Amino acid sequence: MNINSAINSLESFHLAVDETGAKERAASIAGRSIKKESKVHAIKLAVSMIDLTTLEGKDSEGKVHALCQKAVRPLDGSDEIPHVAAVCVYPNMVKTAKSALMGSGVFVASVATAFPSGQSPLKLKIEEVKRVVNMGADEVDMVISRGEFLEGNYRYVYDEVKAIKEACGEAHLKVILETGELETYDNVRKASLISMLAGADFIKTSTGKVQPAATLPVTLVMLEAIRDFYNETGKIIGMKPAGGIKTTKDAIAYLCLVKETLGDMWLTPDLFRMGASSLLNDLLMQYRKEQTGVYQSAEYFTND
């Protein structure tokens, strides 16, 4: 699909977003509570959907290796909790993660395209994507050029995502919108649709480096865009909120939002992820609380 037909396709979608309605619906879902067996099931499901992430300048091979060990067996000494979906790292750590996760079922995701700013020429972005895929990345998390989008240069954004998708080969592409910089919910919806039309396998809220990062209302806007895109085209696209998801209560609210907006089909790691670094320990603490009736000390769990 060329850009003209892609942009024309946007006309078949309702682009205006009821911001007040989105915030009210998200708030109603955030206030819900589930108990006992349902909570245990939700905790295990949430763990299986985590992209366990380290994106710091001080990342080392030792830190990444330890993170991978936790990704494979989140609850030390027990197999009662499933492994996470993926470990997300910077390009230089892809080989380390790939080696540590070999045969585990945990995917390796790498940020790319001049993460987090996206401020480099497209040629260099494509070269970086090809490099991380060649090193073994199963998934690539790219960032769109927010400046171009905000100037109304949708052709640039569409062509950029399309070119990166082609460079990914067999690897899955998650397109980060950096919603905290897109200014309006209407822009979030439009950027979501352009990214999906250009070939995104997932759309993702944030890099985690800009505030606000993931929020329930913004995620709802993106989930509704996925739903409408599916209804219009029959194509199934995944969703990944990232940044600021820290507690079990947060995670369960996102699961409820997905279930009510897209249905049970999307409640799988193949179609829904949560980007997080500190969420996993809270999920494990809440799991132990449900099993034993008491909270374990935070020191009981390894640091992410």
CATH class division: Alpha Beta
H and E string: HHHEHEHEHEHHEHEHEHEH
Query: Biggest β-sheet: count, sense, barrel?
Result: 8 strands, parallel
Task: Tell me the strand order in the biggest sheet.
Answer: 7-6-5-4-3-2-1-8
CATH architecture: Alpha-Beta Barrel
Which secondary-structure class do the elements indicate?
A: alpha/beta
User: What name goes with the CATH superfamily?
Assistant: Aldolase class I
User: Low-confidence spans: pLDDT under 50, at least 5 residues?
Assistant: none
Silhouette: globular
Overall mean confidence score, pLDDT: 92
The number of helical runs is 12
How far apart the termini lie comes to: 42 Å
How many E strands? 8
Alpha carbon gyration radius: 19 Å
Short descriptors:
304 residues; alpha/beta; TIM Barrel; 8-stranded parallel beta sheet; 12 helices
What does this structure look like?
The protein is of the alpha/beta class and about 300 residues long. It has one domain: Alpha-Beta Barrel (TIM Barrel). The chain has helices spanning about 5-10, 20-30, 35-50, 60-70, 95-100, 120-135, 145-150, 155-170, 185-200, 215-235, 250-260, 280-290; strands at about 50-55, 85-90, 105-110, 140-145, 170-175, 200-205, 240, 275. It has an 8-stranded parallel β-sheet with strand order 7-6-5-4-3-2-1-8. The longest helix has 18 residues, at about 215-235.
